[in-house]
Amino acid sequence: MKYEPVIGLEVHVQLNTKSKMFCSCSTEFGAEPNKNTCPICLGMPGVLPAINREAINLAIKTALATNCKIAPFNRFARKNYFYPDLPKGYQISQYELPLAKNGHIEIVTNGKIKRIGITRVHMEEDAGKLIHGENLRSHDSSYVDMNRAGVPLMEVVSEPDIHSPEEAKEYVTRLKSILRYIEVSDCNMEEGSLRCDANVSIRPVGSKGLGIKTEVKNMNSFRFLQKALEYEIKRQIDIVEEGGKIIQETRLFNPDKGITISMRGKEEAHDYRYFPEPDLVPTEIDSTWIEDIRATLPELPDAKRKRFVKEYGLPEYDAEVITISKSIANYFENCIKLYNKPKIISNWVMGEVLRTLKDEDFEIEKYPVTPQMLTGMFNLIDNGTISGKIAKTVFEEMYKTGKSPENIVKEKGLVQITDEAEIIKVIDEIIASNPKEVADYKGGKEKLLTFFVGQVMKISKGKANPQSVNNLLKERLKNNPSLTNP
């Protein structure tokens, strides 16, 4: 029997606010442990929380960008459980009355667009952080850092519409792109600004029911998400095929071993004893508030992708790659303003620019090769100063030094050789050194022209004009009888 996985994702997003959800403490990352705390976020007796309006604004913005219906009336609740990093013994979250419901985003899977439903978008506060063993004075001790306690979180819960690890990765990638476009979070997974839990079950192919699910936690990268799901799906299939039963539980992903391990039995809603938060009044969101937020929305990734295809004539693939990041899309369009050849720009952005960004983990705003520098290099190619091959060298130097392409070409003597007499001199040297290849070429093996071109470019250090090299080689090999038996 063949099985298909059914996956629903819970994405926890730290919101871009300067202060915490219910107090004025800083949300700064990397501060000295327990520095960003106060009686409110530490849950001291007698304190009263107050809702951070900016956090609500950012959640509304997300709901609009993900096509959700915003509730006119939402309420916070107490989610009761004990854990050392939860100072109050409960978490302030939303339960039966979340901020928004019934949205969706679209992903591309197997070349087709698929809609993934969003069950709800709700708000809550983060817990603190436990630090175990590593780099501590005592390896058998644990420490608690409460700086993160009370930081505003938003949880985006998908419908169980995802049926492969690849679709899960694509969904989170798309959601992250939207969140960064609208600037509600930096989505830095290494710093915990974006975290993902997955509910996973399997069922026979063609079945409409849902199997027993497990929740998988501790996936702080797209790669770990995909690997964890691949392992968990296989684990569940193996259990069923061996006649066993899936147990509803929470499991942790161990990235070192590439496996999921049991953490605890899966809690149900009643285990948390939810009840309305008595210290906070319900929030009413009217149409004016919603429309004020809607007016701040930028052009979203899907709309930008479609515009790039229509306006610039880019292939769908190019537009998809370039628009996944707002800053990359802006970089591309800034290049267009200076050099109106979109496909050439997209090739370089998808190739050299994204490669070096990934290698160095740069933000594009700090990228050393500015649009002015990149398009200046294109102009040097167009006017024959440098070849496309030399352009690769020029780009690397711009990236390493921040110098203009004109200065690099001048300093390193990279001007293209266009003098035919100089090129012929190199060609004749190559022909004289390779009599067998010459004879084979004249005997009909015309593909050897590529060999001769490569040799000329090698000796000229890539500076010979490629078109001139091709033309002159054909002429010298074809029309000079003395070259038949050099």
Q: How would you concisely characterize the structure shown here?
A:
By secondary structure, the protein is α+β, with helices and mostly antiparallel strands.
Topology diagram in text:
Elements: E1 3-14, H1 53-65, E2 69-70, E3 73-74, E4 76-80, E5 90-94, E6 100-109, E7 112-125, E8 129-132, E9 142-145, E10 152-158, H2 165-181, E11 194-204, E12 214-219, H3 222-241, E13 249-254, E14 259-265, E15 275-276, E16 283-284, H4 287-294, H5 301-312, H6 316-323, H7 326-338, H8 342-360, H9 371-382, H10 388-401, H11 405-412, H12 420-433, H13 435-442, H14 449-459, H15 466-479
Parallel strand pairs: 12-13
Antiparallel strand pairs: 1-10, 1-11, 2-6, 3-16, 4-5, 4-15, 6-7, 7-10, 8-9, 11-12, 13-14
Helix pairs in contact: 2-3, 5-6, 6-8, 7-8, 7-9, 9-10, 12-14, 12-15, 14-15
Keywords:
single chain, 486 residues, alpha+beta, Arc Repressor Mutant, subunit A, 9-stranded mixed β-sheet, 3-stranded antiparallel β-sheet, 15 helices
What features would you describe in this structure?
By secondary structure, the chain is α+β, with helices and mostly antiparallel strands. It has 3 domains: 290 residues, no CATH class; 112 residues, no CATH class; 64 residues, Orthogonal Bundle (Arc Repressor Mutant, subunit A). The protein is 39% helix and 20% strand. It has 15 helices and 16 strands. The strands form 4 sheets. A 9-stranded mixed sheet has the order 2-6-7-10-1-11-12-13-14. The chain has a 3-stranded antiparallel sheet with strand order 5-4-15, with no helix packed on it. Helix 5 crosses helix 6, helix 7 packs across helix 9 and helix 12 crosses helix 14. The longest helix has 20 residues. The N and C termini lie far apart (71 Å). The model has no long low-confidence stretch (mean pLDDT 89).
